[in-house]
Amino acid sequence: MLGSVEKTENAVEDVTTADFKAKVMDASAEQPVLVDFWAPWCGPCKQLAPVLEKIVQSAEGKVKLVKMNIDENPQIPGQLGIKSIPAVIAFQRGQPVDGFMGNVPESQIKGFIERLVGPIGSAFKEMLEVAENALESGDFDQALAGFQSAIQADDSKTEAYGGLARTLIRMGDIDGAREFIDALDDPIQKSPAISAALSEIKLSEQAGAVGDLADLQSKLEENPGDHQTRFDLAVGLNASGRYEEAADNLLAIIRAERGWNDEAARKQLLEFFDVWGPMAEHTREARRKLSAILFS
Question: Rounded to an integer, what distance in angstroms lies between the CA atom of residue 109 and that of residue 185?
């Protein structure tokens, strides 16, 4: 089954004997639950807690953390045979499945959690960054492999699905990209990452209809005020990876006649931003220029 949208609930809850079944046993049917057994007098417990919470936070909702004060709730730790603290026990599907005792190093805690839920934190982000860099440099084979690895590492993150779809598009396999998107679970299909890929399909199809770039450039040189030709040229330039030139041509239309064709140039530029991504240098530069025009 393909992944679902990621959870963002990372608050650490206190748990008691009375609500242990609901907060741990029942909740572990949905995701692994870690129980941190501690006491106010325990110095190592206070050292472990912030490290454990940080690593759980980096798992971005894939695992839940709760804390039980053993002085106030001795029954559960007694049943589990816990004789020293700090102790952390992982529950899945209502059963204790793994655990550790003592103030162990951060790397061991991370490994403990990754045994439950797969790579967390920087591992997925590093995979995604490598794949994105490969895509931007035109190394499509490496990009495909990278996005596939990222999906295997964490199938709840929509960015990797979007990246794989965009790679297929830039390889010219529009039908393959559509088939891939159609096979995804509905929540992923509705994610911003897939919306950007669908926008890129639309732009690619538009580019196929605008004609030869050289012809468009010659036509524009003869009549620089021909907004439709400049618009078509921008679409073609974008499809060729000439993003800055594409943006500059749309900005020229907006600067000359903002309302032309129901603000088509501005709307097209916003679609470019969606496809390029908010952190791309050409997105940020074009957005700055657009703001200067609109608010001048």
Answer: 32
CB atoms within 10 A of CB 83: 9
Per DSSP, the chain holds a count of helices (H) and strands (E) of 15, 5
Cβ atoms within 10 Å of 166's Cβ, excluding its own: 24
pTM: 0.54
Let me know: does 3 contact 152? Beta carbons within 8 Å.
no
pLDDT in tens, the chain (296 residues): 343 333 334 468 999 999 999 999 999 999 999 999 999 999 999 999 999 998 898 887 889 999 999 999 999 999 888 889 999 999 999 999 899 999 999 889 988 998 888 777 667 788 888 999 899 888 999 999 999 988 987 788 899 999 999 999 989 899 999 999 999 999 999 998 999 899 889 888 888 888 899 999 999 999 999 999 999 999 999 988 899 999 999 999 999 999 999 999 999 999 999 888 777 889 999 999 999 998 87
Ramachandran angles phi, psi of 70, nearest 5°: -75, -20
Structural domains in the chain, CATH included, are 13-117 (3.40.30.10), 122-208 (1.25.40.10), 210-294 (1.25.40.10)
Active-site residue set: 42, 45
